[in-house]
Amino acid sequence: MKKKKLKKIGVIILAVFAVLMIACIVYVKDYYHSDETVTDFLTGTETVSVTEIGNGLFLDGPGEETAMIFYPGAKVEYTAYLPLFTNLAEQGIDCFLLKMPGNLAVFGKNRADDVLENYEYESWILAGHSLGGAMAASYASEHPKELDGLILLAAYPTKSLTAGQLFVQSIYGSEDWVLNMQKLEDGRQYMPENYSEICINGGNHAGFGAYGEQKGDGKAKINREEQWEKTVDAIRDACLANGIGEEKQSRQYSDMEAVS
Question: Which candidate, 21, 35, 65, 228, has a CA 20 to 30 Å from the CA of 41?
Fold first, then answer.
């Protein structure tokens, strides 16, 4: 009787494990794919070359001093951010778009390590979208000396970012219904003194990438090309304001609001 009972328990445990494994496989296979817009960026542009690296893509533009490492949003194909960061690379900031296991940055939080160890730049910026931003913030809190800046796209930190000389910029859209605004507000307590926040009027959560509409998101009042342009301008402006890149030029952002 005892052996039969143990065998029955073993069968139940195996069945539960099998169900969980199937559920995990289904979950990770259900993700947001890059749309056809990305095709035009896969081979690069006149000024930006695109090269495959171990865990992603390297966008090498005309700049030589500053580079950004980017973590994609949860269940979003990493190539969906090619248009946005090709535009940034054209502005002098080389970019590393990292692919995450199962398209979830929570399983690849330390993937910035390989890039930092194998490439040399004067200034390093880490960035991420949504869950990717949360993981980037977590990495930055643990590696304050290796980084000069952190860019959060529709994301917030859960750990202190006050160590080191890190600057942090938060960027999100006014029509973002996916971002938890209460957690965004709570996250401000972890920010360093050198922190800025930009709200893109008319932008939404999915507008940072090229993967279509996202479930639960608000409807954007500007097209995503405008959101990419304003995001690049905001990132570049933050870098220049913190002594990274060329001398700051006067700009007017009528469709962006600095949040005090």
Answer: 65
> What one-letter code names the amino acid at 207?
G
Asked whether 73 and 132 are in contact (CB, 8 A), the reply is yes
- Count how many Cα atoms sit within 13 Å of the Cα of residue 200 in the half-sphere of its side chain: 31
Q: If the chain, 260 residues long, is cut into consecutive pieces of 10 residues, what is the mean pLDDT of each piece?
A: 56 47 46 96 97 96 97 98 98 97 97 97 98 98 96 98 95 98 98 97 98 97 98 96 67 48
Per-residue pLDDT tens for 205-248?
A: 999 999 999 999 999 999 999 999 999 999 999 999 999 976 43
Do the beta carbons of residue 99 and residue 132 sit within 8 Å?
no
Tens-digit pLDDT profile for residues 138-153: 999 999 999 999 999 9
Residues 78-97 as b/e (b if ≥16 CB within 10 A, e otherwise) read bbbbbbbbbbbbbbbbbbbb
Instruction: Give Cβ neighbours of residue 222 (< 8 Å, ≥ 6 apart).
Output: 200, 201, 202, 203, 207, 255
CB 209 within 8 Å of CB 70: no
Beta bridge partners of 32: 76
Query: Rounded to the nearest 5°, which phi and psi values hold at 4?
Result: -65, -40
Q: How far is CA 64 from CA 54, 146, 247, in A?
A: 21, 18, 15
The phi-psi region of residue 257 (left if phi > 0; otherwise alpha if psi is between -120 and 50; otherwise beta) is beta
- pTM summary value: 0.86
* Pairing assessment for the beta strands 149-153 and 195-200 based on DSSP bridges: unpaired
